[in-house]
Amino acid sequence: MQSIQSDQQFFQAMLSFSKELDFDFCAYGLRMPLPLTNPTILTFNNYPAAWQAHYQAKNYVAVDPTVHHAMHSLQPIVWSDDLFSSAHDLWEEANSFGLRYGWAQSIRDFNGVVGMLTLARSNDPITEIELEAKHKRQQKTGSGLALCISLKQFDCAKFKTLSSTRPGG
Predict the structure, then answer these.
(1) 120 belongs to a structural domain
(2) What is the three-class DSSP state of 66?
(3) Is residue 143 part of a domain?
């Protein structure tokens, strides 16, 4: 694997990885614990721009069951009607933008950084056989890439926090 020097290189590597696994869409969200009063959240995705704007305008991050799951579990999760039963509007609207079948994996690092890699597509449900075959590869590659960027971002956020609390910072 080549060294990742920027957020854009990181996302391009994730997008290539998702295509290798037969997914059209890739999203990576990262929640850093600093600053304590307003943790930094970064997102990278290739979802349709209209969906991104709609998701943000509706503040769907607050009700997204995949986000809730990522904050409490390291187990992979497959999108389903049952998973989104508490966020029916979110699910229906995501489907209308072609985001129908997906699978998410969260990670955590030793600094309290939480990341979630989501792979999605419009067609072809995710089967148990596919999930088993691809999960190990996703976990190994996705976690390595995610840890690389989370540590880089955590160091940047920590530096910004420290420098803003110093006189003249």
Answers:
(1) yes
(2) helix
(3) yes
Q: What is the domain-level CATH number for residue 41?
A: 3.30.450.80
Domain of 129 in residue numbering reads as 7-155
Coil/strand/helix, residue 130: helix
Domain count, the chain: 1
Own/partner long-range contacts of 141-146 (Cβ < 8 Å, ≥24 apart): 141/17, 142/14, 142/17, 142/105, 142/107, 142/117, 143/105, 143/107, 144/1, 145/1, 145/4, 145/10, 145/13, 145/14, 145/17, 146/28, 146/30, 146/107, 146/115, 146/117
Q: Does residue 160 fall inside a structural domain? A: no
pLDDT in tens, 118-168: 999 999 999 888 887 776 665 555 555 554 444 444 444 433 333 333 344
Which of 165, 167, 82, 64 is closest to 118 using CA atoms? 64
Residue 162 lies in a domain: no
* Contact by Cβ (8 Å): 100, 122: yes
Q: What is the pTM of this model?
A: 0.78
